[in-house]
Each structure stands twice: as structure tokens, then as C-alpha cells.
Amino acid sequence: MDYQALLRESKALDTTGASRSLKLALLSDAAAQRMEPLLRTLFACRDADARIYTAPFGNIELEVCNSESGLYQFQPDAIAILNAIQSLRADFSCRKGNAAAFVEETVNRIVRIWEAIRSRTSASIIQSNFVLPYERCFGNFDHKVSESFYAAVMNLNSRIAEAAKQHPGVFINDVESIASWIGRRNWFDERLWDMAKSFCSHEHLPAVARNIVDITLAAQGQVVKCVVLDLDNTLWGGVIGDDGLEHIQLSSHGDGEAFYRLQCYLRELHRRGVLLAVCSKNDLRNALLPFEKHPEMVLKREDITVFAANWDDKAENIRKIRETLNIGFDSMVFLDDNPFERDLVRELVPGVIVPELPSDSADYVRAICELNLFETTSFSAEDVRRTELYQQEYKRREKAAGYASVEAFLESLDMRIGVERFDQFHLPRIAQLIQRSNQFNLTTRRITEAECESLMKDSRWIPLYATLSDRLGDHGLISVVIMEKRDETLAIHTWLMSCRVLARGVEQFLMNTVFEEAKRLGLDQVSGEYIRTAKNEMVREFFRQFGFSLTEEKDGHTRWALRVGEYSPSKTFLRAVSDVESAVTV
Amino acid sequence: MLTPPRPEIMEALTAVFREVLDEPALTLREDTTADDVASWDSLNHIDLIVAVERKFKVKFTTREIASLRNVGELATLIQQKPAAQH
Known about the structure:
The structure holds 2 protein chains of 2 kinds.
Chain A: H1 3-10, E1 20-28, H2 35-45, E2 48-54, H3 60-65, H4 70-74, E3 78-82, H5 85-93, H6 99-118, E4 124-128, H7 149-166, E5 170-173, H8 175-182, H9 184-187, H10 190-196, H11 205-219, E6 226-229, H12 240-243, H13 257-272, E7 275-281, H14 284-293, E8 304-310, H15 314-325, E9 332-335, H16 339-348, H17 364-370, H18 381-384, H19 386-396, H20 406-412, E10 415-421, H21 427-436, H22 449-457, E11 461-470, E12 473-486, E13 489-497, H23 506-520, E14 525-531, E15 549-554, E16 557-563, E17 574-576, H24 579-582
Parallel strand pairs in A: 1-2, 1-3, 3-4, 4-5, 6-7, 6-9, 7-8, 10-17, 13-14
Antiparallel strand pairs in A: 10-11, 11-12, 12-13, 14-16, 15-16
Helix pairs in contact in A: 1-2, 2-11, 6-7
Chain B: H1 7-21, H2 42-56, H3 62-67, H4 71-80
Helix pairs in contact in B: 1-2
């Protein structure tokens, strides 16, 4: 939300039922009235009902040194002090001694303010640093001259940070980093300072307010403790189950560098004490492979506290991870490149923080960093050992909890499936899917495009493809089922599906279709085969789940059959549409 | 003599004022001043100016902002400004 939107929102906030309420006081040597509505709104966005006290402009010392002042009567939980470089500039220009003495005096003044507050209240103190000025009186030589304003401000910022280390409960609001991210030429609007003593262009005030909100809530214990990670196309490029170890993208240079960069960032978080968990739709064996064998993996198996790689839905897995770690959902961040999974988790596991990830993996780290998700107000030796502690805990318990309904979510997706016989237009994509699918592929018969074409003309064969779309978008052609009429039997020769659409009922819908087809043709039974490969373990029991009986087994090649009259159709949340309709992107 | 502000400018100004002041029913006349609109205080004045600048892709000087007496003068000022000057 931008500045104007936040202001409008502030007029109609409803924070009844907010999970926490708090009081924040604001002291500034600039005009800070506009911060009040922004802060209330941003706190509300984080489920906190905040009351804000804004001290009269420029009255910092008077407020903090008088026990009877409005500040103390308000009894704040946190006190934010915002110092403007514009005020400092005027002070600097009137200095009596040299710049070093000025820095010393200024730090002492700021520390005296903290101590005056601390002697009267235990509220957290959130001290801003100073945005570097644009004047560089000596040019680049400023860095070598301690008398320059620029050098004095740099010096001052590091002295304030040093002093804060000596004062528990004092936290730095790094306004300089916000201004530098935005760019100082956009940050400052001198006219606003001259007319209204606004320390920056108003459109950037929300970023300052958000910093204060983040720090205040972190000081109250609202921190992220665990990052839950998808694997394929999040931690590395490509699909490990299909592409194999040699072909996933992950490298310290070139193609896979985006993923390498994300892993480096996550490793730093891990070193800081943030737990890492994996939640991936994969065979466990495949999912572990890069961790064990890939030379460029930055994250190692032992960095991952809970490793959930299976074919269950992700909401369920995240609930299990939460239970294992015994932390709140609101202290978990879930990173996944797939918008379907992100939406599923947002809807089924409220509280979990699910950032949008950009479509270009090169921007993953930047997008995550911009959200400032990992604010904290402490760091200890304990943090460094945390993964180890949790892993011990994990080994002691491994059980699932009750979950809310996945069905309701699937229903809300408004999924539309189109099932059609092969046609010329779709042949290239059909052939491509047949060549590429490894995991959800029952027989792995690599039929060529030319062979597909001849099947289309042979009346014994029923070659079908399926397309899927839902309210999140169009998934295109995602499954192929090829059947052959043999006497009184409809034999399933090929069945494969893109793993991106697993667990949505597509295979159930198609099995219903297969039996309808058999009935329509007046056939007695449907038969199927499973041919084991290194990659298709996940569908080994595919036919059994539909009630098929095993009729033959030899060297990992199994044959199955089920009488048409004995099949009971599965319930799904897919709506059948003609191909043309399903291809329309929503 | 200044050219009278075009009706389109007044219309666009009305839209900006309505949004910033959060008053969907607000109507502006050439001679409307801050005294005529309760929510048009000194704080909102800054936000109005910045929003107008963004809308018309112009930039006013401090002196121009300070000398404005009513909405008509603001519209005139916009007309006199070359667009996208910053």
C-alpha cells in the first residue's frame, strides 16, 4: 500500500480482535504527525492494535526529562526517536569546536535522552540514525577529512550504533539504509522541510513507519524462527526427479547463480539461528540427492532441521513441521516458486508468511530482503546452536496432527479440465510431455510424434490428453492417457502427468473418464501396467488405489485389472469443459 | 492577463482533492480556498501539492506554493508550467 492508501485505510481501521495491542510514542525534531496514521495502519496489517502518542514537535528533551510529561502519562511500550539530518545540519553549522567534538556532543546528548527515558520506564527505545547528507564539501576527499559534514554524519552513525550496544533495550532504526535504498535524490524534498518540517518526501514515510513497526514487534517477540523451503525451481533450477542431478541448475557462476545466491543468503540466516525446513513434492530419495551429492550445494543436509519430501499437500506438511518445531505459524516463512502452493498455504495455514516470489529467480533474494522479514532484537550463542537443539527434538517425535480441509481449497480453485483425443495442433506438446515425464509415468514408453500420429488414425486406439486451468492461471496440457481396445478389455498403454498438478484430482477425474469410455464401448474390464524405472516410484501403487487387482508381477513390471461394474467413480473438484474453453487464460 | 484554467484541469484537480482529502463529494470552484474545506489543513496542503505535481507531472517552487490563494490560481499555475520538467 502506498502513502495515500495507508492514510485512507487509517480512517476506517477495525482492530477489534487483534492478537495484540500496544502503545508507541514518537519523539522527533521534525514534524511527525503523518507518521501516526501510517503506524496505526501498518500495525493493524500485522494484527496489532496500536495507540500512538506524538510528542509536540522538537520537544524531545523536555518530554524525556519531565516525569509528568505526556510521554510518561501515556505509558508507552516503545518509544521511537526520529532525528532529522536537516536539524543536525543547522546544529553542525553552529558548532563551536571541531567536527569530532560535535560528534561527541551529539552522541552524548542522544545517550542522555536514552538514559533519561530508562530511568523512568522500561519501554523499548527505537533510535533512528541519520541519513547521509548530499553535500560533499571536499568531494571524494570527504572521507579523509574529519571536518566535513559528510564524514561527521558517518562517524556519528557508527558512534550511535556503538552506544546502542552498551544500552540494552535501545534499537537502531536504520533510516539511512532506507534512504540509500530509495536513493537520496528521491528521498529528500527540501520544499517539504522548509514549509512543514517534513524530513523526507511523504511517499517514503511508510518505509520509515514500517521499520518502526518491525522493530517494535520484534522487541515483543514477534520474530521469524523458521524458513520452509520448496526445492525444485526454488532452491535449484529444474526438477530433480525429472532432470537428474547433472541437469539441475545450481552453480556459483552462470545459469544457476540465482539459486546459489539464494542458498548463500539462507545459509547466513541459518548461521544467525533461523531454522531451515524443506517442504517439497518429491520422492525423499530424489530430494536428498543434491544435498548429498551436488558439488555446488551451499546448504547441507545437516542445515535442514525438518526435511519433508513426499507427495502430501504442503499445508499438511507445514502443520507437521510446525508441530515438530513447536513454534507459531506466524513465525514461519514459506518460500515456493509455485503460485498454486503459495495460495494453498495462505488459505489453509493462516499466519504463515508467504512472500510473493518474482518470476525471475535472479530476483529472489532481493524480493525477500525488501520485505525485511527477519527483524530481531537479540542475538546470542544459543541462536547459533539452534538447529542442533531442534534436530534432537525432532528425533524424539514424529507424528501428524489434524488438518483443515484441503477439499475446500480445491473447490475454491474453480478447476476446469478439458479431455480430448489427440489432435494435430497439440501433437508437439503431447510428444514433448511423453519424452520428458519421468516421475508420474506408469510405463515410460517414449512414443514419438510420428507414432502418436499413427495412433490417431487407428480405431483400436484411444489417445487422450488433458488440459487444466484454474483461477490462478492456465496450466496447459498436463496429462496423456493412451488406451487400446483388446477384445473385451480396455488396456491402459500409457499414463503420464506433469507433477506440477499433483494432488488436485486430475488422475481421479481421468480414471473416471477411462471407465466411462469402457462402459460406452461395452467393454468388460480395464487393465493397466506399471513398469518400474529409477524415477517412477511414486506411481508404483497407482492402480491399487482405484481398486485394481494385481494380475501379474515380474521384475518390477506389474499388471492390473478391474471389472467395469466394480469401479466406483472418485469424487473430484474438476469441472469438465471443452478444450477451447479450458485453454482460455483467466 | 492570465488565460482562464481549462475545465479539464479543474476536473482533474477535483479528482485529486477528493482522493487526498478523502471527500468523494467535494466540489471545487475557481475561488475555493482552504478556508472553505474543513479537511484542507496545512498538513493536507502539502499532500495536495505533491499529489497535484504527480498528476500533472510538474513541479512547483516553494514560493509558488506559498503564494497560492485559491484553486483557480493553482489551475493557472499548472497551465503555465511545461510538463515533466523534473
